[in-house]
Amino acid sequence: MRILLSDGFKENFSCLEKQIQKRADKQILIFKDNPFYPSLNTEKLSPKWKEIWSFRIDKSYRIVFRFLDKDKVLFLNAGPHDWIYKIKF
After folding, report:
1. According to the model, what pLDDT value does residue 19 have?
2. The sheet that has 2-5: what strands, in order across it?
3. In whole angstroms, what is the distance from residue 48 CA to residue 21 CA?
């Protein structure tokens, strides 16, 4: 799986605590192998037609992404669960 990073993702990821970044790196490795691995809790966000997805870094943090094709995704943003779901994509 090839992962592209948006500017928004890069900016917000760099602002996360180092501990959260390390956890995210572990989750990203799992994601690259299987985007729907159960511990990631990958889900499609509403509205469904926008084709925006998220997966879990931990209980409180998420990464939001879009599938570009079967082998490529674009990470759009990373941040706290409550905050990330308020962003309009």
Report:
1. 98
2. 2-5, 72-80, 61-69, 53-56, 43-44
3. 28
> Secondary structure of the chain in the HEC alphabet?
CEEEECHHHHHHHHHCCHHHHHHHHHHHHHHHHCCCCHHHCCEECCCHHHCCEEEECCCCEEEEEEEEECCEEEEEEEEEHHHHCCCCC
Q: Is the pTM of this model over 0.70?
A: yes
The strand pairing partners of 66, in sequence order, are 74
> What average pLDDT does range 6-24 have in this prediction?
97
Res 87: pLDDT: 73
pLDDT at 67 over 80: yes
CATH classification code of 2-84:
3.30.2310.20
